[in-house]
Structures are given as C-alpha cells and as structure tokens.
Amino acid sequence: MPKILQVRAMTDEESKMIEHLSRSRTAPARQVERAKIVQWASEQQRVPQIATRLGVAENTVRNWLHRFNEAGLPGLFDEDRTGRPPTYSPQEVSVVVATALTKPDDLGLPFGHWTLDRLEVYLNEEKGIAIKRSRINEILQAEGLRWRKDEHWFGERVDPDFAKKGGHHHPLHGSTKEEHRRESR
Asked: How far apart are CA 165 and CA 141, in angstroms?
C-alpha cells in the first residue's frame, strides 16, 4: 500500500500565516494556491482530493507539500530563476546613450545629426557593439529619450520659397496650374 503524504506539524505562526494566505485576495494567485494545498492537507484531505479541488496535477500537490515540509513557509515562494542574461552590459548601454547624446560633428563625422541608421553603423563599426536600430530605439526610450524622425528626403533641403519663385517645370511632374490655365484658353 502506498505511503500517504501528510503535511508536517505546523507552528502556530505557520498555521495562522497559511490560513491568512489561503484566503487572501491580494497575494499572488500561485501563493494562495500553495497555501490552500498545505491547509487542506493539514485538514486531512488527501492528495487526489486537493488536486481535483484545485484543478491541478497530483504531482503539483505532492511537490508543494514536500517543499513545505522541508522548508516551511519560505518553501511556498518561487525560487530565484536565472533566465537569459542581458544582451548588452550596463557599460554598452551607457555608450549607446552617450553616443546618441553627442553631436556627430564633435566626433568628426560628416553629418550634423544622428539617425537610427547612422547610430547603428557608428556603434557597430567604431564602438564594436553589435546592435540593431530597433534595440537602440528601445534603449533610448527606456532612458526617457524620445527619438526624432529623420527627414524624408535626400540631398539638399527643398527651398521654402520654391513656389513663389515660379519653380522649375519638368515633364515628369506634369503641368503647373498656370500652364494648365494657359493651355485651356
């Protein structure tokens, strides 16, 4: 016959804390569920009953009862997880932010402002940080910096008085309004 898993004898403090935690509406749901497992086990409910009542696997109930029996209340909390290490070190992040805040002219570069593309190339080639423009943008936003969109034209800026000066007509651009009026007479 299999051995029946039971919860160990609890101190008064543990018992009060388990009861409080099992009825909590503000504690994390996982902790409430684990406290219920311990409480119901202390009330002589069996593992299959507890598992059915909570809608979890019997192994889950056994796991949390073993952890409580071995470690007490701290055993009901999640253990630290290692997870994926940060892709960029704090030093690399600071280089990205410092570079973005530095005028390209001050670095001897042939342009007057940064774009994400220019910043990506500079960081990759000059600083040796393999980073994409989307990640640069994320880092800058996380630091509270808002990125301005680059101009949408290449070469020289359009003359603001272009229309007043009559502009230049090119066959690909179609007729100007004045030429259209002359032609329709």
From this structure: 42
The most distant pair of C-alpha atoms in the chain lies apart, rounded to whole Å, by 108
Residue type (1 letter), 97: V
Report how far residue 173's alpha carbon sits from residue 176's, in angstroms, rounded to the nearest whole number: 8
Taking alpha carbons only, the member of 85, 87, 105 closest to residue 96 is: 87
Stated pTM of the model: 0.46
Taking only the tens place, the pLDDT of each residue in 148-165 is 654 443 344 455 565 566
Report whether 77 contacts 53 (CB < 8 A).
no
75 and 38 Cβ atoms separated by less than 8 Å: no
Paired tokens of 156: 């020289």
For residues 39 and 21, is the Cβ–Cβ distance under 8 A?
no
Q: In this structure, are residues 104 and 111 in contact, taking their beta carbons and an 8 Å threshold?
A: yes
Cα distances (angstroms) measured from residue 20 to each of 26, 27, 39, 42, 165: 11, 10, 10, 14, 81
The pair of three-digit structure tokens given for residue 67, joined into one six-digit string: 């952890």
Q: Is the CB of residue 63 less than 8 Å from the CB of residue 109? A: no
| DSSP 8-state symbol, 56 | -
- Rounded to whole angstroms, how far apart are CA atoms 65 and 178? 88
For 70-79, what is each residue's pLDDT tens digit? 999 888 888 7
Containing 98, the helix (H) or strand (E) segment is: helix 90-101
Beta-carbon contacts of 67 under 8 Å, excluding residues fewer than 6 positions away, are 75, 76
